[in-house]
Specification:
CATH superfamily of the largest domain: Glutaredoxin
Shape: elongated
Oligomer: single chain
CATH topology of the largest domain: Glutaredoxin
Number of helices: 9
Radius of gyration: 26 Å
CATH architecture of the largest domain: 3-Layer(aba) Sandwich
Structural class: alpha/beta
Strand content: 5-15%
Number of domains: 3
Length: 284
């Protein structure tokens, strides 16, 4: 099937430059970004190439734009990638039209599967599309050469690279090195289990906090329902005042005021007004 190209123009405001990056929405080609993970996995297996997953917010994420400008749009990177990588974009843009509908839920599922906490997150897989070799981060000083060096460091643990290296060793050293590789695998597996348990624990804590908040709200509603008409009107008036105060603060923050003594005093005053209203409301 002929690949359908989705060309995304990314304005790198932080750098004052514009970078245009091409993505295939279907199909996969070595060295070219694609959104089609299935095609990428098939190609990686055929060509015995590792896979680079880029969890990105292409049209809003500052660090993503920096990496595109400094690394992924550079000729040196394109030349390297054509021979060494299959690259997959898993995008979470503000402009929802940038991602075909068929990939939206899949991307969300992969974000959860890989426990992605921020953007960009670069996950490197072996050619089987399953084995995770490691993860890389963005950086203002990253270059095509430095990012390639980080990838090559991860590639050392690919079975194909291990086989090449151990072939140069004596039988005794081969056994010793493979034991080190096995130990590394066990430690990585332990980390994975720990991360999974941590994520599950955090999710459970969020559930408990939600339950606490719901119970507190039900108690407030019960108490309000038993107020006199005059007290209830006072309570409702305070609620309106608090919402107006919060909206005022939110609208003010959207103006991105300069940070100085005057604006800090304004911010403090608005926060104190909200806190005072919260205090009055809590008395009900």
């Amino acid at each position: 099937m002929k690949a359908t190209s989705l060309c995304v123009a990314v304005v790198v405001a932080l750098l004052g430059a514009a970078a245009e990056v091409e993505f295939d929405s279907d199909g996969a080609t070595p060295g070219k970004w694609t959104m089609d993970l299935d095609a990428a996995k098939q190609l990686a297996e055929e060509k015995q190439l590792p896979i680079l997953l880029d969890f990105s917010g292409s049209d809003w994420c500052g660090w993503c734009k920096i990496m595109e400008e400094n690394v992924f749009t550079q000729p040196e990177w394109k030349t390297y990638a054509q021979e060494n990588l299959v690259m997959v974009l898993l995008d979470f843009p503000s402009d929802k039209s940038l991602v075909p509908e068929k990939y939206v839920e899949r991307n969300k599922a992969l974000k959860g599967e890989y426990s992605v906490q921020g953007y960009p997150t670069f996950v490197v897989l072996d050619n089987d599309g399953i084995t995770e070799l490691g993860r890389l981060r963005s950086g203002r000083d990253k270059t095509p050469e430095s990012f390639q060096a980080e990838l090559k460091n991860l590639f050392r643990f690919r079975p194909v690279e291990i086989a090449k290296y151990t072939a140069t060793l004596s039988p005794e050293d081969q056994a010793a090195y493979r034991e080190l590789i096995d130990q590394l695998g066990r430690e990585k597996a332990a980390v994975k289990l720990g991360e999974k348990a941590e994520a599950e624990a955090k999710a459970k804590v969020r559930e408990f906090k939600t339950a606490v908040n719901n119970a507190e709200q039900e108690m407030v509603e019960f108490r309000v329902a038993h107020l006199s008409e005059a007290e209830r009107k006072q309570y409702e008036a305070l609620q309106v005042q608090r919402q107006e105060a919060k909206t005022k603060l939110s609208d003010w923050m959207k103006t991105k005021p300069d940070k100085n003594d005057e604006t800090m005093a304004q911010y403090t005053a608005m926060q104190e007004e909200i806190q005072e209203l919260d205090k009055k409301i809590s008395q009900y």
